[in-house]
Amino acid sequence: MAELFENRWLWTAVLASLGAQVLKVLLILALTRRWEPDKFVETGGMPSSHTAMVAALSTGVGLTQGLGSPLFAVAVVFSLIVMYDATGVRHASGLQARLLNELVAELREVVREGFAPVPLRVLLGHTYLEVAVGAILGVLAALAAFVWIP
After folding, report:
1. What is the spatial distance between Cα 18 and Cα 74, in angstroms, rounded to a whole number?
2. Cβ neighbours around 150 below 10 Å, total
3. pTM of the model
4. What is the secondary structure of 67-112 as a DSSP string?
């Protein structure tokens, strides 16, 4: 069990993800002047916590195991799949949710009695910028954990 708590790769990745989620809430506060702590547990938005997590993991593995190691290759491929999914499939799902919510709102106006659909979640995925910032955050977290603070 002690090994789990001493796993720098795991905890660096987790802390990078949590840092991205905190940063997301703080950015919303700074830009909109609204305190929305519920955004801490939501997907989507700036920066991508999923990307920060996998970028921290890949960077940590690369720094300690070498860029030519099979483990680094696995971590990078895993990271690329997560980032592709964040910008592709999940982003498209969010756009579809937005469109469906607009259609439901129009339908609600047409059928005013007894029709009460629940809106779908819109922020499922990320833009390329959100993923890029998440990747930078993850790399910085790994550099801090494995290089700057040995």
Report:
1. 23
2. 5
3. 0.68
4. TTSHHHHHHHHHHHHHHHHHHTHHHHHHHHHHHHHHHHHHHHHH--
Cis link prior to 70 (omega < 30° from 0)?
no
Instruction: Write the pLDDT tens digit of every residue in 53-106.
Output: 999 999 999 999 999 999 999 999 999 999 888 877 777 777 787 888 888 777
For residue 15, count CB atoms less than 10 angstroms from its CB and return exposed for 0-12, middle for 13-18, buried for 19 or more.
Answer: middle
Maximal C-alpha separation, the chain = 64
Rounded to an integer, what distance in angstroms lies between the CA atom of residue 123 and that of residue 138? Answer: 21
**Domain regions of the chain by residue span:** 2-88+125-148
Nearest to 14 by CA among 142, 131, 128: 142
CB 36 within 8 A of CB 28: yes
